[in-house]
């Protein structure tokens, strides 16, 4: 018996999704027929392809191509055929597009086919579903292309800005390892002739001996520690506490607030402009912030909006966004141009995020250099201290 994940339709056209055990696809059809359902597609859970979520750059390219083709009057099936045959896409991505195309030919809507693949964010699926309902899917895809293009550009900016501090940190670690494992052992014979050594020197020499002779144990400890941190980091309460610190730490907290504000306002603008109800748009946009502490505050925000409280007033209570967001939304509510103001605040916040990232790197560079200097200085002092003490003892004896 195989466990099938299926999509089926009832007589009134409603989509039903689920999973059940059956001897084969024919047996599954019979089981669903007895329930008044007609099988649309089915996949063996054991054979379902494991694919990663598409990157922001891939999503942007996909949406841009699809938007252009649909706006030109090409059918969605033909558009996907063209996109799947484009040069430069990886075999895995091409396979994904062909699977979506296969589901479309079976009668599934684009949003349903994409949702089955587990490779597309819920924001994208929700907006496409909204566009399918309103009939303006080409403009929705164009907005999604702009959305993911901005997200990709911001990520690249942050990554490129953080490259130098990362290289500096790696160099710091490499210098310390080289000194401890190659240079310090040269002093072992000299130190072994001394009756006593300072505590710092004994600690340093013990660490050097351990890394030289039992380096595999050190690697194993680091590996186990990384696994433990990864597992502990997935615990809900731990994630919540870490995300709380991300918002309230000095300097970094302000940068994170800027990034979260930009991400939320851009997402909410895209969802609201596509015609999605504001409560549902808030729920979806809140899930894309990327901070559990901030996301959990949205249940209260949605309840306030549904009770009639203005959006600007509701978002003012969120700890994790800049106050500029609520004041900008208030202007949009008063002028009736909320989507325009959300776009404006998103662009402003993205520019501020880039500037804040550059300022953070400017602070990190001297900090890392000072850390490297302190570590090397500590090693030099630990090495030179017993030598000076032995010279002092010799002079005293003389």
Strand and helix layout:
Layout: E1 2-10, E2 15-22, H1 25-34, E3 37-44, H2 56-71, H3 76-84, H4 91-105, H5 110-117, H6 122-134, H7 137-161, H8 163-183, H9 188-192, H10 199-213, H11 215-233, H12 236-248, H13 252-273, H14 278-287, H15 292-295, H16 298-306, H17 311-315, H18 323-335, H19 338-397
Antiparallel strand pairs: 1-2, 1-3
Helix pairs in contact: 2-3, 2-7, 3-4, 4-5, 5-6, 6-7, 7-13, 7-19, 8-19, 10-11, 12-13, 13-14, 13-19, 14-16, 18-19
Structural notes for this entry:
The chain is mainly alpha-helical and 398 residues long. It has three domains: 2-47; 56-160, Receptor-associated Protein (Up-down Bundle); 174-398, Type II secretion system (T2SS), domain F (Receptor-associated Protein, Up-down Bundle), CATH 1.20.81. The chain is 73% helix and 6% strand. The protein is built from 19 helices and three strands. A three-stranded antiparallel sheet has the order 2-1-3, covered by helices on one side. A hairpin with a 4-residue loop joins strand 1 and strand 2. Helix 7 (137-161) packs antiparallel against helix 13 (252-273) and helix 14 (278-287) runs antiparallel to helix 16 (298-306). It starts with a strand and ends with a helix. The model has no long low-confidence stretch (mean pLDDT 82).
